[in-house]
Amino acid sequence: MTWQPTVQVIELAVNPTFSTHWLIPNLREFNKLNPDIIINIHSLANIGDFLNREYDAAIMREDFCSPWSEREYLFEEEILPICSGSLLSQPQQKLAVDELLNEFTLLHQSTRINGWQEWFALSGISSPQVNNGPRFDLLSMLIAAVRSNPGRGAIAPVCHSARSG
């Protein structure tokens, strides 16, 4: 932590998508309650970003944590497949697994490369071949790719916080 006159500064490393969509929008209340603390937010896309810089704290997935770090569990993630709304002919339409594998390009997040394997395993589906398809560093990039509907269509597994608000 660095100190400025009467102000405490905390250097916080955070996943870019989490910081943009949850942390920053929710800082207002913290700032009201703690006017003497400034939080500097730094992008943390992978574990190397954390290990190569000096931060006071980080908010990251457990699999990014180093074995010697102190950890506090914040919330559970749920893996959900997403696709462009234009790919479904009816609202609430459900897709069969063979449709997922044969008709859609499976997109991957580089920092969660096993996302599809996790989702299929949680769905009780044994080891489909799901490693093909483009990879994106950031979740926001992955979502943009899904929205742009490249090729035959794209679908991606994303994690959604149980505490999304």
Pick out its properties:
9 strands; 3-stranded mixed beta sheet; single chain; alpha/beta; D-Maltodextrin-Binding Protein, domain 2; 6 helices; 165 residues; 4-stranded mixed beta sheet; elongated
SSE blueprint:
Blueprint: E1 2-4, E2 7-14, H1 16-23, H2 27-33, E3 37-43, H3 47-51, E4 57-59, E5 77-83, H4 97-103, E6 105-106, E7 108-109, H5 115-122, E8 135-136, H6 139-148, E9 154-161
Parallel strand pairs: 2-3, 2-4, 6-9, 7-8
Antiparallel strand pairs: 1-2, 5-9
Domain LysR substrate-binding: 9-151
GO molecular function, one term: sequence-specific DNA binding
Organism: Salmonella enterica subsp. arizonae
Q: Enter the CATH topology name of the largest domain.
A: D-Maltodextrin-Binding Protein, domain 2
CATH architecture of the largest domain: 3-Layer(aba) Sandwich
Terminal-residue CA separation:
28 Å
Silhouette: elongated
- Main sheet characteristics: 4 strands, mixed
CATH homologous group name of the largest domain:
Periplasmic binding protein-like II
Which class do the helix and strand fractions yield? Answer: alpha/beta
How many beta-strand runs? 9
Organism: Salmonella enterica subsp. arizonae
Protein name: Regulatory protein for glycine cleavage pathway
Pfam families: LysR_substrate
Family: Belongs to the LysR transcriptional regulatory family.
Explain this structure to me?
This protein is α/β, with parallel strands linked by helices. It has 2 domains: 2-64, 3-Layer(aba) Sandwich (D-Maltodextrin-Binding Protein, domain 2), CATH 3.40.190.10; 77-161, D-Maltodextrin-Binding Protein, domain 2 (3-Layer(aba) Sandwich). Helix content is 27%, strand content 25%. Strand 1 (2-4) and strand 2 (7-14) form a beta hairpin. The two termini are 28 Å apart. The mean pLDDT is 76.
